Structures are given as structure tokens and as C-alpha cells.
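Q: What would this complex look like in 3D?
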Amino acid sequence: MSATHYRRAFGAILVREVLRFWQQRERFLSALVRPLLWLFIFAAGFRAALGVSIIPPYATYITYDVYMLPGLAAMIQLFNGMQNSLSMVYDREMGSMRVLLTTPLPRWYLLLSRLFAGVCVSLLQVYTFFAIAKLAGVDVPLAGWLLALPALIVTGMMLGALGMLFATTIRQLENFAGVMNFVIFPMFFVSSALYPLWKIREANIWLYWLCQFNPFTHAVELIRFALYRQFNGLAALIVLASLAGFGTVAVAAFDPSRGLAKRGEPAAD
Amino acid sequence: MANTGQPVLTLHGITHHYGAKLALDDVSFDVAPGRLTALLGLNGAGKTTIFSLVTGLFSAQAGRFEITGRDMRTSPSQALEPLGVVFQQPTLDLDLTVRQNLMYFAGLRGMSRTAASERILSTLMGLGMAERLDERVRALNGGHRRRVEIARALLHEPRILLLDEPTVGLDIPTRRAIVSYVHELTRTRGCAALWATHLIDEIEPGDRLIVIDRGQIKASGEAKAVMASAGAASLAEAFDKLTAQSPELAT
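A: Here is my prediction, written as C-alpha cells for the whole assembly.
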């Protein structure tokens, strides 16, 4: 297979994801409404009560909405990663995954292309969110938007790979609601998205360590530092290691036959 | 397309289980270019399992198969290259147009946009679907969707066309049209077609026939010859005789 074939196949997967996303514009709106509600209602309420003292990467005191912004960007990616995996389970059940997997290219490449295409869609959502926040006066340096792009790609891939890992273990579409309740919300709340780690440590040391073991915490911190033109090496290392781990297991475990069988009985004749 | 007469698909002793249930039992056969090979069996006979193995969706538990001489275990990408597949289950994206669905597939096959556009138009014209190019698949009826799936399988000019019960759920005129179109393809393009079906009237006397029952090959050869060797006056009678011999049915 030539490099051109690889490139064209990725282009086809990306275009399909964008077209599907365009067909489901309500998905775009709902992906934005959620973080905007957090930003303009939750953060606005706490803004007066909770200022955040000077901690890296911030050079000065910041308001709570500014603190929350990276966490909400990561939240968009987390939801998008899970949405992408939901779409993979759906495609597997509906059969369109078979078209992808019978392509004469390595399966790991096809699955990672699918993952990366999903990340590209999430970037559209994140930057739209940044723009709305900027218009509303939540100040983040514009140069940081550009520097955050690599961080957002890596964090999006890591969260997407986690979603793909769940997609490999879920037999049927209806089982996916459990993932939403038992994965997304704990990951978001037990992290530095809402409160700085030093505050969590003061409140509860066990919760602090849980946050430290949560890769979502490090995704948030990687984005936060990048937005302020700084590099958080530890966060980058943990996010990359998590991406490698989740991605490897998910690709190895991906079994297209799962969608062909219903409740243990082979549907294939 | 060169018709060398050599088999383009060969299965050697394929055995496959779903848990404890035996789905395929030492299945061997080959598929020749330039003609249609019908894989005839009832539901549960093992037809879709064979397709899933040949397309690489499942891994063979025992035995091996070669596609145009390439072993799926050692060269999966090269083995998949000459295949065009129409799955039993619809696999088109309903919210995309016919063109978008086909362009997606063409991209996956590494075709350039220009080449893909030309091939899409000519293939759809052959199937009488060119005027539906920019309609969403959701707006098409079952027969038209099937034609689009066949067009998709033909875009990259495959040497082997695999069709897993492609006429299921279609009305009789549409079924006849599709059966006739695929027969014509094998004659004019010289490609091989492996057609899984449980509908005997889709098979022509000159087709190669493989009868499968409960995971075992019961007979293979030209349809006329299978009838003769079973001592039957019709293909339906031959099929009944061959499948009635299975021990499960006998008890």
C-alpha cells in the first residue's frame, strides 16, 4: 500500500466524520450548551466567592471562570470521545464498520484514523467554545489558543482512545448509558477541572490522590499550561502514556464480530 | 481483466466455532474467475461465517484461505485488495448522499477524487442509478440501496465480488435484475462472483454451485452436475436430498 493510499483513506474518514457531524448539527449545539452552562451559570455564581490565587501557570490572580475554561475544553473532548465511541458501537451494530475494516489497510491505522477524525471534530467545538467565552469576557491569551492546539490534539486522542476502549467492551448500544454515568461524570468531577489540586488536597488527601491518578486531571493541566504558553512535562508524559496504553489495548481488543452477535447467539449464518 | 482460469479464492480446511457451537467443519472449495459461484444453504448453514472469514472480519481458527494467491494470515492487506463485498446487512450511511457514500469508499480504496468521480458515474449508469447521485440514501427504496451497495463494491474494479444474500427483502423484479446484472458482470468483466443465497431460483444451470449445510460442504460442481449426481430432476429436489442427509435432520 502506498503512502498516497494511506493519506486518501484518512481523508475519506475525516470527510465522512465532518459530514456526519454537519448532518447532526444539534450534536454541535448540545456539545456547546453543556460547557457554556457551566461557564456562565456555575462559574458565574462562584466567581465572586472563589478567586484563584497565583498558581502556575497563572502569573496573577484570576477569576473562577478563567480557571474553569481549560477543564471545560477538556470536558468537551471527553464527551466527544465518548460520543465517538458510541458512534463506533453504532457503526459496528449497523454494519458500516465492516466497510471500514475490510479496507486493505492495517486495522490499527483505520481505527486510529477514525479516532483522529473524531478529535478534529472536537477541535471545532473547543475553538467555538473559546470564541464564545472570549466574546463574553473570559480572557485567555489569543496566542495560547494556537499553542494549545497540540495539547488539545493529544488530550483529544487520549480521551478518544479511552472511549474506543469502552467501545471494545460494550456488546450493545443500549449498554452505553452506563458508561456515561459511571465514567464521564466521575472523571470530570474527580479532577482539577473545577478546583485546583492544592485546594482539593487541603480538603481531602484521598480525593487528591484520586485526582492524581485520573488521566483527565493531567489532560486539563496540559491544556491549562499550553493556553498560557507553558509546557507541563509531567502532564504531557502522563497523557501520552495513557494514550499509548488505551490506544494499544483498544486496537488489540477491537472485535468487529461483537456487533454481529446478539446476546451470545451467533447472528452470522 | 485477465481470465487465467486459476482459482481466485481458495479455502482449505476451514473450521470455525462460536463458543462450543461448530459453525464450519473442514470447509474447502475454490472460486474460479469469469463465472458466478453460488453458495447455497439455509439460514445458519455457515454462509455469512465464510464471508466474515474471507473479508478478514473474523480470524480463521483452523485452516487457511488464499485470495489471488495471497494468504490472509500473512498478507491481509494484499489479500483484501482484490475483493469487492456486498454485505447481507445494509452498510450505507443513510444520512449521506449516494455520492458521499461512494466517495468515502473510493477514498478508503485509495482512489483519487477525479478517478472516483468518473468511476462512480459510470458504475451508477450501469445500474440505472446515475440520476440518484445526490439523493440521500435514506430517500432510496431497498432495491435502490442494494444497487448502490453493488456499485460501491465495484468501484475499484475488484477481481472477486462477494455478495452475501444481496437480494434479501427485495421484490421479485428487483431480485431478477440484480441476479442478471451480476451474471452479466462475470461474463463481461471476467471477475469472479461468490453469491451466498438460500433462494434456488437465483442460480442458473451453468453456475458453479456449492451446497452447504450446518457448516459442511455437501456438494460442489456445476449446478447441472450437482443435480445429476444427486439423481434429482430439479435443483430444489437436489438441495432437499443433499441437506436431508445431515444427521441432525435425520434424527
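A: To summarize the key features: Chain B touches chain A at residues 18-19, 21, 23, 41, 43-49, 52, 55-58, 76-81, 83, 85, 87, 89-93, 95-96, 100, 103-112, 152 (CB under 8 Å). The mean pLDDT of chain B is 90.
Q: Very helpful, thank you.
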